[in-house]
Amino acid sequence: REALGEDAEPKAVEEEEEEPRRSHKVLEESRQRLARLLFEGTQMVTNIQVAADMRETQRRAEEAELKLQRVERLEKEAKWSTEKIEDITSKWVLAKELTIPQELWQLLSQQQEQCTLLLQEKNRLIDELQQELRNKDEEYVQTIKKQSDDIYLLLERMEEQIRLLLKTYRHRLLQVEKAFELERQELLDANKKKWEEAIQALNAQELEHLRARMRKVEEFEKQLNQLWVQGEEEYSSMKIQLETDVQNLEKQLQQAKATYLLNQEKLDYNLQVLKKQDEENTIIRSQQKRKINRLHSLLNSLRTKLAKQEKQFREENQSLAADCERITGQCKEVQRRMRHFAVSDAEKFAEVWLMNEEEAKGLMRKALDADRIICTQQLGLRWEEPQHWFLTHVGPLGCHKEKRTATELAAEVLAAGSGEGGKENTVKVEDGVPPLRNFSKKTAKRILELVSDESGFLVDSKLRRLLHELGRKERTVVRLDSVFAALDINSEDELCQLMDFFLKYQAQEGQPGVQERGSPRGEDVTDAAEDREAGGSGTRRDELKSPGSSHPSAYIHADDVLKILKAFVRDFPKLREKDPTHTRPVKEALPVRDSSKDGEYWEALAQVIPEPTLKLWDALAVALQEYYEVLGRRATLLTEVAVLQQQNAELCLLLEEYVSSGVSAASSSLRPGDTRVPPSAPR
After folding, report:
1. Domain residue spans in the chain?
2. Cα–Cα distance, 571 to 500 (Å, whole number)
3. How confident is the model at residue 637 (pLDDT cuts 50, 70, 90)?
4. Of 86-95, 260-269, 393-402, where does the model show the most confidence?
5. Main localisation, per the record (predicted)?
6. What DSSP state is assigned to residue 545?
7. What does the alpha-carbon distance between residue 509 and residue 496 come to, in Å, rounded to a whole number?
8. String of b and e for 609-619 (b: at least 16 CB within 10 Å)?
9. How far apart are the C-alpha atoms of 627 and 82, rounded to whole Å?
C-alpha cells in the first residue's frame, strides 16, 4: 500500500450511536407484562389461603374463649355440688337423733328433694355439654364444606390462570418473533446497501491499480534494454580474459604430467608393500573369523537361554497378574457386599427403631392423655402439654446419609429424564440433591445413552446374553455399570467429571458448527434423540449439543464417544489429583452411628410423666377410692331409705284401717304416747 501511494492503515469509520434494538424493547415489555400477570395470578390464588387462615384464627380464638367459659362453669358446678353433698351429709347426722316418724319423714322428703335437685342440675349440665358437642359437629361439617368450596374455587382460579398464561405466552411469543423478523429484514437491507457501496469502491480502486501497472511495465522495458547493451560489453571483455587463462592452464598441465610419472613409480613400490601386508591381514582375518564363529555359537546359546527365561518370567507374570486381578475383584466384591449388608442392617435397625419408637410414643401419648383428663376433669386445673426434644424426633439418633454411587445416580437421571417431558430443569447443588451441578437432566441423559450404546464391548459376555430379557432402561443401567467398573468410576463426583469432560471436548478441539457425518445437514441433538427414542430408522444420528461450551452450535457425534473416553481415561488421574476432596470409594469407611445417647433417649421417653405428677396420681387414686366407698354407702342407705318409706306407707294404711274399724283390741294395744313400732314391722 505504501508503494502504490495508499494509506498504510484504513481510516476508522465513526460509528453512530445506535438506538436500543426493537427486539430488546419487545422482550423487555413481554417480560414485564408476564411478570405482572404472574404476580396478579399468584395474589388471586393466595387470597383464598389468607381468608382460610383468617377464619381458622378466628375460630381458634372463639374456641379458646368457649373453653375458658366451660371450665369456669364446671368449676362452679363442682363447688356447688360439693356444698350440696356436704349439706345433705350433715343432715343425716340429725336424722339419727329424731324419734318421731313425722319429723323423720319430713327430713327424708327434704333430703330427697335436695338429691333430686342435685341430679337435675347434673343432668342439665350434661345436656348443655351434649348440645355444645352437637353444635361443634355441625360447625365441623360446615367448615369441611367451606374448605371444599375454597378448594374448588382455588382449582378454578388456577385453571383460569394457566389458560390466561398460555394465551399470553403465545401472544407475546408471536410479537417477539415478528419483531425479530422485522429487525432481520432491516439488517439485511442495510448490509446489502453497504455491500454495493463497497463493491463500487473496490472496482474504482482496481481500475486505478491497473493504470499504475501499465506505467510500471513501460518503465521496466526501458530498463531491460539498457541492461542488454551493458551485458554485451561485459561479455567481450570476459572472452578475452578467458583465452588468456586457457594458455596458462595448458602450461600447468605439462607440469602435472611430469609429476604424474614420478608418482606412478612411487605407487608401484607402495603396491608391493601393501600386497605383503594383505597376505598377513588374510591370515589374521581367518583367525578372527574362527574366533567370531565361536563367539556366535556362544551368543546363540545365551539367546536361547534368555528366550526361555523371558518366556518363563512372562508366564509367571501373566499368572500373577491374573491372580492379582482375581483377588482384586474378590476384594471389591467382598467390600461391595459388606457395604450392602451394612446398609441393609442400618435399614432393619431403623425399621425396628421406628416400630419400638411408635409403640413407646403411643404409650406416652396415652399417659399424657390420662394426665390431661385428670388435670382438667378431676382437678379442674389448666393442663399444658410438655415440650420435650424427643417428642418431635423420629428415627435413630446420629444417622449419616451415604453418598450415592455413580450407577445409582445414572439410574435416577435416566428415570427422571424419561418422565420430565420436554422440560429441562437444571438441578443445582443448592437444591438439595445433587448433584448434577449445572447440567440439565436431558443433557445428562443423552450423554449416558451415548456412552451405553457405544461402549457395549465392555460388558461381560455372560451378562450380554441376559440383557435381551431386560427393558431398555434396565439394559442401559446394566451397561453403564459395566462401563463405570471398567473406567473405575464409582462416585457421583467422578460421574459429573465425565459429563463435564464430554461437554468441554468439542470446545477444546475448536470445531464449532460441525454437521452430522454422512448427513447433508446438521440437526439439533434434541431432534436426533427424540427420533431415536420414538423408534426411528437405524441411522446413527446420536449427536449431543453442549449447552455449557463456548460454541453453542458444537455437536458430539456417536463416532467420537470412544475418542472422548480414551482422552478421559488418559486425563482421569490428573482430574483426581486436582480434586483434593476425592477419596477412593472402596477405601471409604462406613459411617458408624453414635449410640451413646440411645439410653438417654429411651429413658426420657419412659420418664415423660414427672415424679410429682405420679405422686399426685397416687393421692388422687386414694381420694377417689374413698369417694367411691362413700358413694357405695350412700347407695346402700338410699336402698334402706326406700325400704323404710315402703314400710311406713304400709303402717299408715294399717293405722287407717284400725282407726276406721274401731276395733277395741287395736286401740288397747297402743297406749297413748307410745311411739314404738309393732313387732311385725322391721325397723
Report:
1. 22-240, 404-414+438-508+555-579, 610-656
2. 13
3. very high
4. 260-269
5. cytoplasm
6. E
7. 20
8. eeeeeeeeeee
9. 12
Q: Which amino acid, 203?
A: N
C-alpha closest to that of 108 among 89, 93, 92: 92
H or E element that contains 201: helix 101-373
- Separation of first and last alpha carbons in the chain: 151
CB atoms within 10 A of CB 524: 12
User: Residue 215: in which H helix or E strand, if any?
Assistant: helix 101-373
Residue labelled with grid coordinates 417428642: 391
Cβ atoms within 10 Å, residue 409: 23
Residues 296 and 252: their CA atoms lie apart, in Å, by 57
DSSP for residue 374: I
Write down the number of H helices and E strands in the chain: 12, 2
Q: What 3-state DSSP class applies to 596?
A: coil
* Model confidence pLDDT, tens digit, residues 270-324: 888 899 889 999 999 899 999 999 899 999 999 999 999 999 998 999 999 888 8
pLDDT(336) > 90 = no
Mean of pLDDT values over 24-46: 81
Q: Tell me which DSSP letter residue 610 carries.
A: -
Helix (H, G, I), strand (E, B) or coil at 491: strand
Q: CA quadruple 653, 659, 664, 666: dihedral positive or negative?
A: positive
Specify the pairing of strand 555-556 against strand 544-545.
antiparallel
Q: What is the dihedral of CA 346, 352, 358, 363, to 10 degrees?
A: -140
Strand, helix or coil for residue 555: strand
What secondary structure letter does DSSP report for 421? T
Contact 211, 4 (CB under 8 A): no
- Beta carbons within 8 Å of 451's beta carbon, 6+ residues apart: 480, 483, 498, 561, 565
DSSP run (H or E) holding 680: none
Task: Locate the DSSP E strands across 491-612.
Answer: 544-545, 555-556
CA distances from 295 to 300, 308, 321 (A): 9, 20, 38
Residue type at position 259: T
Dist. CA 352–CA 529, nearest whole Å: 46
The answer to whether 478 touches 470, Cβ cutoff 8 Å, is yes
| CA-derived radius of gyration, the chain | 57
- pTM for this one? 0.31
Q: How far is CA 681 from CA 652, 654, 669, 676, in A?
A: 12, 11, 15, 10
State the Cα–Cα distance between residues 348 and 402, nearest whole angstrom. Answer: 16
Q: What angle do CA 320, 324, 327 make, to 5 degrees?
A: 135
What b/e sequence results for 265-279 when a residue is b if at least 16 CB atoms lie within 10 Å of its CB, and e otherwise?
A: eeeeeeeeeeeeeee
Tell me the average pLDDT across 28-38.
82
Tens-place pLDDT, residues 613-631: 888 888 888 989 999 999 9
Q: Would you say how long the chain is, in residues?
A: 683
